[in-house]
Amino acid sequence: MIIRRLTPKDLSAFRALWADGLMRVPTAFLFSAEEVRAIPNRDVERGLEVNMTLGAFDDAKRLVGFVSARRGGPQRMRHMADIGPLYVRADAQGRGFGRALMEAVLQQLIDAGVQQAELVVDVENTGAQKLYRALGFHAFGKRPRAVLIEGTGRDDLLMIKALDGTDLTRGA
After folding, report:
1. Each residue's pLDDT tens digit, 90-104
2. Which residue of 36, 51, 63, 75 is most buried, as measured by CB atoms within 10 A?
3. Can you give the C-alpha Rg of the chain in angstroms?
């Protein structure tokens, strides 16, 4: 297994894997397949340059998973980062790629001085929630009807992890 930052040279493989994820697990993504197809390649390449997007490659050097993280934009929010989406191909699940991607992105955030990481996960995605909890995330809220998929509201669980040892559960 190889985990590394994706670059614009990975555009084709990244877009193909993103499309696979949108087809198989549309609730794991904010954008719809139509919206993703409409994003010009130059914009996706720019996202790969600006955001921290890590890819997991199997022994055949095939991209089988990815995770993205975006640091807060304004100076007063630079201490935190949003993680997501995380996606691993169906035929590569259960082999540690998701955990390895999350551990790698968390370490890179720590190395960059980020103090906390946040993510959202569909309330029905218990497998992902189990992974996030095992990595030290805890729920701090629920966003009802966070997204509408084909007219049906889906709730998101909000999760957070302190990367600097602070107890973020105080008062929760």
Report:
1. 999 999 999 999 999
2. 63
3. 16
pLDDT band at 145; cut points 50, 70, 90: very high
Cβ(140)–Cβ(172) under 8 Å?
yes
Return the residue matching tokens 């198989």.
Answer: 24
- In which order are the strands placed within the sheet that holds 138-149? 2-5, 52-57, 63-71, 80-88, 116-122, 152-162, 138-149
- Output phi, psi for 110, to 5 deg: -60, -45
Q: For residues 12 and 4, is the Cβ–Cβ distance under 8 A?
A: no
Identity of residue 74: P
- Could you report how far apart the first and last alpha carbons of the chain are, in Å? 38
Contact of 82 with 70, CB cutoff 8 Å: yes
Q: Round the average pLDDT of the chain to a whole number and report it.
A: 93
pLDDT band for 171, please (50, 70, 90 cuts). Answer: low
* Strands annotated E in 32-115: 52-57, 63-71, 80-88
Report yes or no: 125 and 27 within 8 Å, Cβ to Cβ.
yes
Judge: domain 2-162, CATH 3.40.630.30: yes
